[in-house]
Every structure is written in structure tokens, then in C-alpha cells.
Amino acid sequence: MTPSPTLSPSDVFVAMMARDVRVMRRELPFFLLRTLMQPLLLMLVFGFLLPKMGNIPQAYVGTLFPGVLALSIALSSIQSVALPMSVSFSVSKEIEDRLLAPIPTRLVALELVVMGTLQGLVTALVVFPLGKLIIGTIPGLALADFAELGAVMLLSAAAFSAIGLFLGCAVAPQHIGLLFSFVVGPMIFFGCAYYPWRGLDVVPVMKYAVLLNPLVYVSEGMRGALTPGVPHMPLLVVTAALLVMLGIFWRIGLNAFMKRAVG
Amino acid sequence: MAIIETRALRKRYPAPPMRRRPGARPSGGTAPSEVVALDGLDLTVGAGECFGILGPNGAGKTTTIGILTTRVRASGGRATVAGFDVSTQDVEVRRRIGVVPQRPNPDRSLNVLENLVFHGTYFGVSRHESDRRAMALLDRLGIADKADAKTDDLSGGQAQRLMIARALLHEPDVIFLDEPTVGLDPQARHQLWELLQGLHRDGRTIVMTTHYMEEADRLCDRLAIIDRGTLLACDTPAGLKAKAPGATLIDLTLDGPAEDAATRGRTVAGIVRTDVTGNDLRAYSDRGGEPIPALIRAAEESGRVVQNINLQKPSLETLFISLTGRKLEA
Lengths: 263, 330
What we know:
Distance between the termini of chain A: 29 Å
Oligomer: heterodimer
Radius of gyration of chain B: 23 Å
CATH architecture of the largest domain in chain B: 3-Layer(aba) Sandwich
Largest sheet of chain A: none
Number of helices of chain B: 11
Strand content of chain B: 25-35%
Shape of chain A: globular
Helix content of chain B: 25-40%
Helix content of chain A: over 70%
Order of helices and strands of chain A: HHHHHHHHHH
Strand order of the largest sheet of chain B: 7-8-9-4-10-11
Number of domains of chain A: 1
Number of strands of chain B: 15
């Protein structure tokens, strides 16, 4: 049969999104369990228990809360893209059905990044109210500029989905554990999620070295948008840095994807 | 009318030592770090044909299918499917083909029916129409009762049927099957053969790779025999069998080197050719099994004792052995 002449790549793109949304809705409880445990435990211990014990000043919570949100977005976006992709290319080959669909192959990669972005944003939208519920009053929280908050969250989720695309294509499934120990672990601890970047004034070498870490800009951007009283990088710097990270990782991620997709 | 054409198709893979494929040979001296999977392959498949690509492991079968289905980039030459170039018009090619992979790769997050319905939507078939076609296909393939099953719960044969249903759902012009019966039990294999014969009767173009002679002989209108990336022969199964030298293969295993026996055997009436591998003597006979007593005498005269005799009727297998010097089914 001659195929329908009206089918455009965007129709195929939307059909793939529909499949992903169906699966995401069905697996929502597992998705939330996977992505929420760590941030909620962090908030419970460092945002609620330790300040209550008097071991940490209450004001620290204003630094921690945006940082943990940043962490949630970053981890959720990376995992949503990298984990299934690594398995799909190497073990299950599930991705081949998409690679054989009538759509340019790079759009298959774009669709995965868009879905990763969406999942990062969903995580943030769930962590935010739950975190606030656990912590109670967050000193300095000012939800004034929703456009700024939305832009930082969106760019962060997109940049980390692109990082996920790259890692998912570059790392074999049996090395995913190593990836999380040796790449994601240090990224979290040197990503200014638990302290403001300005705080690193005390160790100047580290202050400039961490600028290579994309999480720094997410943490700083979230602070600027949520608790502007805490020292943070200007929005312009954060936006520009995240755009550059997105551009770089989309480019190298797409290259890696195309290499895996077309032999 | 040709629906698939390849001209001087070449594919070289970079070959780190660990990934070097058995059977593929290093390219001639230019770059030792490469293996040549396809070395100037010319194929033409007519619309409505059931076309088989036959060859041992590493012959280049999967690479050929990979290029024709746009998943592997050719290093040289040209290939078209339904008139579209596989490298520059890949989206158009993909709209017109259905692919059954060597190993089932269903979407494991979806159930059986959803696998088909979403696949249909990737090809612009409406949900409603996809649903209707999916149920009809599952019914035809005898797995309608598995519509709501998880794909992990399917047996090997059922998963393979799901892959066939998926390849058919968008009603492609050409169906590609890469070693479709590997890993299936004999019963599932015969069911699959009947299914493919049915599709062929419907007038679909089918291109399949296999290294099972019987499968190729039963299903295919024409066969291409390839080895080491080149086309050795291409004809109908009957035409190929007629090309086998001599007609019957007589294999003798001796108790020592067979060279002397082979020299004597060549003079036996009815023997047209002999090959020697160590203690094994292979004689091509154009008088069936008649020369066997004379061959045994020839061996004994050379001071050897015959330990085993095997006789093979003329078949694609004997042709393949005469073309490549090795057996097809490893």
C-alpha cells in the first residue's frame, strides 16, 4: 500500500510522545519513588532534623532547598534519558522500532530529550510542595518571578536530558553503576547544591574548577529564583551557561546517538 | 519490475581485534584495522518476489539487510528500495518497509496490542485503524489471546509472531526478515514458514536471510548465495541445484592423509572432481552412488582404510560446498 502522503515528521514525533506519556503515566508511582527518595530524605535530615536539633542554623535551609530542587531536576532528567537508552541500545534493542519509523533519526533523539525534560519538570513540581511540607517555613523563600523560575527549570531539565543522551549512548549498561559513582556522585557534591558558589571563596581553586560542573548553574539559578537573599550568580550568567551546556551536550549527545543508531 | 537494487555495494567496518567477525576478512592490505563485510554486492529483487539471501555466519547477510533497511550506512555503491536511495531518502524508504529483526525487540513497557497500535501511529495509521488491523493480525497469527499479555510473557515463537505482526501493521511494500527462524523449535519454524508462504501468496515482496538450506529451498523464488561479502550465485533454487558440479557428493573419511586416494579416485568413472581436507576425501559424482565401490578400492590401493562414507543428494548444500568449500550450517 502506498503510504499516506500527509504523514509529516512532526506527526511521528507526536505519536512517539503519546507513547512515552502513556508509559510515564502508567509507571508514575515507580518513577516518583525512584526520583523522590533522595531529595526528600535530604530535606528531612538536613532541612528538618538537623536545624531542629540546633546542629545547623535555620537560615541554611534557604540555601539547601533550592539546591535540592536543582539536584532533583538534574538527576531525574539524566536518569530518564540515560538509563533506558543505554539498555535499549545494548540489550533490549527496543529503540529499533523508533529508528525504523519514518522520521529523521535526529528527531528520535530530540524526542527522548524532550521527554527527559518533561520528567525533570514533573519531578520538580512534586519535590517542591513535598519539600516545603517537610521543612515547614523556608527562610527567604520569595516566589516572585515565575517566568525566571520556569526558565531556569526548563533550561536545566533540557541541559541535563542532553547530558543523559550523551551518557546513555556513551556508557554500556554494565558501567552505569560506575557512571553514577564516579561522575554523578562528584557532580552532586561539587555542584553547589549544598552550599552557595560564593561560599567557595574560601578555596579559590575549587571555586573556578567547579564552573565546569553544569549542576552549579542549576543550583545557583534556583537560588536566584527562589531565595534571592542567598548569594547567587546573576540570572544572565546562569541562563547563558545553561544554554552553552545544552548546546554542547546536545551536539555531542546527538553525534553519539547517530553513531549508535546508524552503523 | 525491480523493487530493490544494489550496485557495487560495499561495507567496511572498523575492526578492533576483539570485535573481528569470524569469516570476514581484512581488507586487502590497505587498512588492516578494517574488515570488509560487503565487497561490491549487486542484487536485484523484483516486486512480489520472495528473495532469499543465503550464506554462512559472517557472510554479509545481516549487513545487507541493515543497509537496505537504512540502519547501516554503506561505505560505497548504491542501494534503492522502491526507487528511493537508502542513504539520502531514508525516511521514504522506512515508510515502505517492515522489518522483522533477528532477535525479537518488542517495546517491553507496552503490552502486545499496544506494541502494534503505537507502531501503527508512528506510520500515520490512526489509533482506531491501528487497533482494528492489530486485532486482525494477532488473530491471523494465532496470538489473539495474548493481546493484553506483557511481551515478557511471550514464548520465543509468539514474540517472533508479534514482530511479524508489527512489521505488517503499516502495510509495507517490502518485508525484511533477518534469520527469522533462528532459535525457534521445529514446530514454530514450520508455522512461520506457512505464514510467510501466505504473505507471499498475498503478493508481498519478502526479503529474508537464512543459513538454513531447507528454509531457502521451500520459501524462496530466488536465492542469492553470498560469502565473504560477494555474490557467488543467484538463481531459482532449481536453477542453483542444476549448477551443482557432478550431482552427488560422496564424502569418505580415511585412516590417513587422502591425497593419494584422491589422485586415484579422479580416474574412477563418474567422478568429476575430488577435494581433499586432511583425511577427508570429497568426490563429486555424476552417477549418484555408483562409483562408491571403485572409490573404496582406490583408497585401499593407496594403502588407506575407509572409516566412514557419507552420500549427499544434489542440493543447495552441495552447490554451496562446491562454491565455498565449506558447509553452510555451522
